[in-house]
Write a structure and sequence with these properties.
By secondary structure, the protein is mostly beta strands. It has a single domain, classed as Beta Barrel (Maltoporin, Chain A). It contains 5 helices and 35 strands. The radius of gyration is 25 Å and the shape is globular.
């Protein structure tokens, strides 16, 4: 690995020299004009309509404020191609998946910092404690993105981008409260100083009394002592982004986010459902989980030759610690992970293309109270060409080589063209890509726990490989006020890693599963700006995901529909209506049972209706409120784990 890293430094330097030479040769051409709207799709600042055949959704801070949600989990629910599953109320384990793939195939970032936890079972991201504080936008890129982002991006990427300070320095503060004894106090400041230094700071404290994680509304599981204890959540978040911009040519940035949280916990009984105490009265029970998460990144960017050449280097680090306690306040488990990433990128802006090259060096490690520290290193090199011809044709093509210290080298590639018909504005797009996911450290090296029939990790695991493709079209009408579109996709996963139990000994471990797991579906939308201040949008996602035996994968709805209405009847008032319908989902009948011993095979469909409003009393004072689950719909995202019922919240914010 050492020789690869030494070579990597030389390659980055060599790319810079080649870029400078090539740029001098191209200096007579006009540079490409690119709007700063999205960065995740191509790793360059690009207009959202100029990303080739890539499927991208952007959720802006205005949309987040319009709905009034507290957490990223709530914001993502209902987005095209996205499935979010929480094991209970706020602060409980929350996974996210894209296009029917496993959650381990979705890479979650904060300003480019990896959120996926190296100590988690499959290196998946847990959204439980991510609040909406200081978020400028969330970019969702659907489809395999391993070429740009490596191992965990085989189904897509979610990048949470924090706010950048601009304009005159200003401060804000607010407070809100509501159902389940919930309250939140928050504040922040942002702005520019001397047109050189910019900053954006935010801090918040959130607490909720919550409700029983074991579902008190589910009469198919034991009630009474198992469901009469509320499980609360406490979260403190600090977020900061700082920048130094010298004549828009040399830019230095620092991003920091720290989260300190505690959530009360319930057990999962071997009988097949959630309970307050799976071991019986008087025995130790799951009491709480304390989590600390720190995400840090610093980067330096430079532009030369009037922007024809851009270079960037960065360092990022994530530290995530999870401690589990029983009702005697005794530590029952402690998991800590660290992820360090160093990278560099060179972009050459020609008249008809942007050529980008980069190198990434990733170190990850985890340890626990029963496992010694385990580590892994991956060195990666990638190249991508974004070609465009006038305003009607684009082609994004890329290649990546990953060298993992345990599994050797793997090459992935991606091609994503798009065509815009000049006279009708019709957009035709497509993409084909391959993916590569290495086993997680836990899957490889986890210590055996005989009491739980866990035989430990499996060091003989092989990487998962995948490929995916999509085709789609979009058509604008009435000068873009009405737009409709649809995209068909397919993904296939080979050597998928799953948990396998020996039917004789009941001992289980992780193995590469035979055959091919598949996911296919259709993402469609209608967006209509009916009036200048009235916007309506309808999204439908169809997803059919099956394992190698053609059995549907659990927790994946076949259909999801979302309708959103955003209306501003007067300048000071904003209203939002959000309706989500989620189809039935398969559950694992070999693991989940009701209190009578009957296997649970399916979770019911449900409809959620949410309302929100914001009113600006003065230029510096506004009030807001929201009602969630207006019709008190009973539903579960995972068997026997509760979800919020009818609830209402209100708040006030002061801007200065």
């Amino acid at each position: 690995m050492g020789k690869w890293r030494g070579l990597g430094v030389l390659v980055v330097l060599g790319m810079t020299l080649m870029a400078a030479t090539a740029t001098v040769q191209a200096a007579g051409d006009d540079p490409v004009q690119i709007e700063d709207l999205v960065v995740t799709a191509t790793r360059t600042e690009t207009n959202i309509d100029k990303v080739g055949g890539t499927s991208v959704t952007v959720i802006t801070t205005e949309e987040i404020q319009a709905k009034g949600y507290l957490t990223v989990e709530e914001v993502l629910k209902g987005s095209p191609g996205i499935d979010v599953k929480a094991n209970g109320g706020p602060g409980t384990l929350t996974s996210v998946s894209i296009r029917g793939a496993d959650s381990k195939n979705t890479l979650v970032l904060i300003d480019g910092i990896m959120v996926n936890d190296a100590s988690a079972i499959s290196r998946q991201a847990d959204l439980a404690n991510l609040t909406t504080d200081n978020i400028e936008r969330i970019e969702i890129v659907r489809g395999p993105q391993s070429v740009l982002y490596g191992s965990n991006a085989t189904a897509g990427v979610i990048n949470i981008i924090t706010r950048k300070g601009d304009g005159k320095p200003r401060v804000y503060a607010g407070m809100e409260g509501g159902s389940y004894d919930t309250w939140k106090a928050y504040g922040g400041a942002s702005g520019e100083i001397g047109d050189v230094f910019n900053f954006a700071l935010a801090a918040s404290k959130t607490e909720t009394g919550g409700f029983s994680i074991a579902d008190a509304d589910n009469d198919r599981i034991p009630q009474g002592a198992s469901t009469d204890e509320d499980d609360g959540w406490r979260n403190t978040t600090f977020s900061g982004r700082f920048g130094l911009d010298i004549e828009d040519r040399f830019i230095f940035g620092v991003t920091l986010r720290h989260i300190d949280s505690t959530v009360d916990a319930d057990d999962f009984d071997f009988a097949g459902y959630a309970v307050d105490n799976s071991f019986g009265p008087g025995m130790p029970e799951a009491s709480r989980q304390d989590s600390k998460q720190t995400f840090f990144r610093t980067d330096a960017k430079a532009k030369f030759l009037d922007g024809l050449l851009s270079t960037a280097v960065y360092y990022s680090k994530a530290i995530q610690d999870r401690e589990f306690y029983d009702n005697n306040n005794k530590l029952s488990g402690d998991y800590e992970s660290k992820t360090d990433e160093v990278g560099g990128q060179v972009d050459m802006n020609f008249k008809h293309n942007v050529l980008s090259m980069g190198a990434v060096f990733l170190d990850e490690g985890f340890e626990s109270d029963i496992e010694k520290e385990k580590t892994a290193n991956t060195d990666s090199f990638w190249i991508q060409n974004h070609f465009f011809w006038q305003d009607w044709f684009e082609l994004v093509a890329g290649l990546r080589m990953d060298d993992h210290e345990e599994f050797g080298s793997e090459t992935t590639y991606r091609i994503a063209p798009s065509l815009t018909l000049p006279h009708t504005g019709t957009v035709l797009k497509g993409a084909y890509a391959t993916g590569f996911r290495t086993p997680s450290l836990y899957e490889l090296y986890a210590a055996a726990v005989p009491a739980w029939f866990f035989a430990g990790g499996n060091e003989k695991l092989e990487p998962e490989t995948s490929k995916g493709w999509e085709v789609g079209l979009a058509q604008p009408f009435w000068q873009g006020r009405l737009k409709i579109g649809t995209t068909y996709f397919e993904m296939k996963f080979e050597d998928r890693i799953g948990y396998v139990t020996d039917p004789v000994t009941w001992q289980g471990t992780y193995e590469n599963l035979d055959g091919t797991s598949k996911s296919r579906g259709l993402e469609s939308f209608i967006a209509w700006q009916a009036m200048d201040r009235l916007n309506l949008r309808l999204d439908h996602t169809y997803t059919h995901s099956v394992d190698a035996e053609d059995e549907r994968l659990i927790h994946r709805p076949l259909n999801k529909v979302r309708f959103n209405l955003d209306y501003q009847p007067v300048e000071a008032l904003k209203l939002n209506l959000d309706i989500q319908w989620v189809d039935e989902r398969d559950e694992d009948p070999s693991f989940n049972y009701d209190k009578d011993g009957n296997p649970v095979q399916e979770l019911d469909a449900y409809t959620l209706v949410n309302l929100s409003a914001r009113y600006r009393l003065t230029p510096r004072l506004e009030i807001y409120g929201r009602v969630e689950n207006l019709f008190d719909e009973f539903y579960e995202e995972a068997w026997s784990y509760a979800t919020p019922g009818l609830s209402a919240y209100a708040g006030i914010r002061v801007n200065y």
